[in-house]
């Protein structure tokens, strides 16, 4: 029986760093081992009991719709169109605000990530109601989104941290929010969009919540050592093919764990 756990998958962006609008498919359709990132997402989300996946689409939405139609999981997928997809991911998350308000737990996920199913199982199975995933193996620089920790608690969440902290790791870009936090996230995206603050990444709305909340409201699971990578640049594709994909547990394992 499916739970009230829903997922929001953000897949509207152009992905210009991988080739741009002229000749590149949506990043969610990047293929590894013969399967797209999107197919892998839907397979893993089904295996962990997600009732419905809302995919926010924009750039080349028809290609994503076709991939969903080919998938055996298409019946549990809803596409929401973001015609303002060039403005950035804050607008994409805002487009899915009604899913955030549906009254159950919600996963919020970047679509451009290749990952092992064990990451998702760690997130869904965590006792932490509002949970981030953190990897201690983080590259230097301003590109990774950093989850900043002091005394075991999250104190900042940004590419360029502004709060004192003891250490930080990289955010995977997957989050689980309880009903209250999910509804608040919808409200905060409303506020950003109403203020015209649409060119910032959606993580700003999550950071707003973290900074305004008691220190124990949000927590994290450390998934260091499990294989995953975000797909932003051509070098990420090469790393995914050569280093990450060979380490993923195979499709038969995912099916077996789902009881299929």
How would you summarize what this structure contains?
Strands 1, 4, 5, 6, 8, 9, 10, 11 and 12 form a 9-stranded mixed beta sheet that branches. This protein has a two-stranded antiparallel ribbon with strand order 2-3. By secondary structure, the chain is α/β, with parallel strands linked by helices.
Written account of the structure:
With 260 residues, this protein is an alpha/beta fold. It has one domain: Spore Coat Polysaccharide Biosynthesis Protein SpsA, Chain A (Alpha-Beta Complex). 33% of the residues lie in helices and 24% in strands. The chain has nine helices and 13 strands. The strands form three sheets. Strands 1, 4, 5, 6, 8, 9, 10, 11 and 12 form a nine-stranded mixed sheet that branches. A two-stranded antiparallel sheet has the order 2-3. It has a two-stranded antiparallel sheet with strand order 7-13. Helix 3 packs across helix 6.
Output the keywords.
260 residues; alpha/beta; nine-stranded mixed beta sheet; 13 strands; 33% helix; 24% strand
Mean pLDDT: 93
Major β-sheet profile: 9 strands, mixed
Report the span from N to C terminus: 14 Å
Radius of gyration: 17 Å
Output the CATH topology: Spore Coat Polysaccharide Biosynthesis Protein SpsA, Chain A
Number of distinct beta strands: 13
Total helices: the number is 9
CA-based shape: globular
Output the CATH homologous superfamily: Spore Coat Polysaccharide Biosynthesis Protein SpsA, Chain A
Number of individual domains: 1
CATH architectural name:
Alpha-Beta Complex
The helix fraction, in percent, is: 25-40%
Low-pLDDT windows of residues: none
CATH C-level category:
Alpha Beta
What are the secondary-structure elements, in order, as H or E?
A: EEEHEHEHHEEHEEEEHHEEHH
Strand content: 15-25%
Structural class: alpha/beta
């Amino acid at each position: 029986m499916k739970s009230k756990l829903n997922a929001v998958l953000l897949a509207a962006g152009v992905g210009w760093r991988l080739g741009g609008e002229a000749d590149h498919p949506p990043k969610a359709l990047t293929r590894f081992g013969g399967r797209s990132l999107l197919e892998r997402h839907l397979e893993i989300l089904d295996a962990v009991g997600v009732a419905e996946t809302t995919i926010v689409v924009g750039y080349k939405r028809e290609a994503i719709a076709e991939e969903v139609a080919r998938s055996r999981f298409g019946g549990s997928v809803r596409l929401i169109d973001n015609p303002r997809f060039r403005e950035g991911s804050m607008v994409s998350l805002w487009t899915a605000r009604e899913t955030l308000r549906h009254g159950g737990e919600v996963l919020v996920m970047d679509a451009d990530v290749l990952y092992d199913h064990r990451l998702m199982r760690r997130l869904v199975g965590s006792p932490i109601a509002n949970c981030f995933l953190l990897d201690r193996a983080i590259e230097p620089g301003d590109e990774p989104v950093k989850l900043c920790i002091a005394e075991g608690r999250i104190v900042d969440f940004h590419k360029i941290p502004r709060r004192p902290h003891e250490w930080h790791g990289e955010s995977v870009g997957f989050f689980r929010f309880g009903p209250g936090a999910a509804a608040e996230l919808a409200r905060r995206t409303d506020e950003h969009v109403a203020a015209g603050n649409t060119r910032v990444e959606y993580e700003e709305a999550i950071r707003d919540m973290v900074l305004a909340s008691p220190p124990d409201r949000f927590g994290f699971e450390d998934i260091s050592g499990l294989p995953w990578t975000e797909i932003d640049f051509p070098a990420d594709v090469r790393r995914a093919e050569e280093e990450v994909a060979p380490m993923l547990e195979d499709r038969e394992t995912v099916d077996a764990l789902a009881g299929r």
